[in-house]
Amino acid sequence: MGDAAVRGRPATRGGSAAVVVPVVAIGVLVTVAVVAAGERVLEYRSPASHLVLETIDACVAVLVSYLVYGRFQRSGSRQDLLLLQGLAFLGVANAGLVLTLARSNSVEALGLWLPPPLRVLGTLLIAAAALLPARSVRTTTRRWALPPIAGVVLVFVVVLLWLGDRLPRASELGDGVGLPLASSTHAGLLVAQVVTLTGFAAAAVAFTIQARERDDVLLRWLGPACALGALARLIYLIFPSNGADWFYSGDVLRTGCYLLLLIGAGREISRYWSAQAEAAVAEDRRRMAREMHDGILQELAYIRSELAAVASVDEARAGRIAAAGDRALDEARHLLVALGRAADEPLADAVERAVEQIAQRYGVALRLELDASVAADSAQRHALVRIAREAALNAVRHGGAERVGIRLGEDGEGRYLEVSDDGTGFEPERRTAKEPGFGLISMRERAAALPGTFRIDSRPGGGTEVTVRW
Length: 470
Prior knowledge:
With 470 residues, this protein is an alpha/beta fold. The chain contains 17 helices and eight strands.
């Protein structure tokens, strides 16, 4: 087969730095501004604004947890299981804050003391999802992913209702307006802030590292989202907030965390449906390939075999028909292989596959120098493969070549595809003027449509070299 094959390395996909860096920079600037001001930068009494933000945060957390639940059902990954449970607890915690607006003392206490433990538990689960090694869970566990969440919430509710009036109320803790650190907040609430801050920070670092190594859209947004969550908890720790009627600076960063999660969820859904569409197209291509193999190829092969019986009657005509049959078989086989290929196959792989088929069928040696980093879209890839195939076929059929070289690369003038051979060659000017040939016309037109340029260098006895640049 081939004498040598030189392949380059494809470019590696970058991580999530393009998302993490600006998000963290903005969050840090907001945090520094809040700390430097000595009080909350955004601080005013607005129960409606607070309620809107809590509702948004709760809805986004529940939506993303539902999305991750679907991922978990498909993957069975422990990371997805812990992530969906953590997000579900955060959603319930945000929804529980709305209860602080109620008039009943017991319900008010429940609204104040239920969210912190749920938030701590949710953050620890998210951190565990980011830090624990990847592992699959048992199939039976997949059916019991959500019931533990409802059970834990129910236990917390029962305990807090039982404690009732014995729990401190927000009015007993102070309104928290402009007060630093622990001057007016219960120690338990401060510990909860420290734990959630640590959990979000650890998850932000771990998810960012994973996003650099894995092509996962949701992971790419989990890192910056957790970073904003950590910064929000830092502001809450320095300037505690006890009143549900107040709108604080930390609320902005916290909502930004959930909005980043929403963006990640949207990207994940978009990629999922794109993958579904690509899978449907691939299945249809495979079906067409099977139909072609069982129909057209079989009939062409039969016609070709039957020519032997009539060759003695008109040998010249039988020879022309046999040559046409061979060309039709070559084209049908090429289409069969093309239908079976992945739609996103690299250009270097597609070119190599096409010319290797010709080399195997006609017994010629190949010299391949293909740079795998050279990219082309689907239409360009199809045109370039057809040009390479047509040039190699012409070298074998018309030039009697024994060696064919294929080069794919990029230089100062752009990307190029070069096909050379050691065949008999010809005079391009005379061929173009006298009998241009459909093959040459087809290659020129395909090259022009890239858009690109087409050049052919040849002389009698000196081989031929076809070069396409785009």
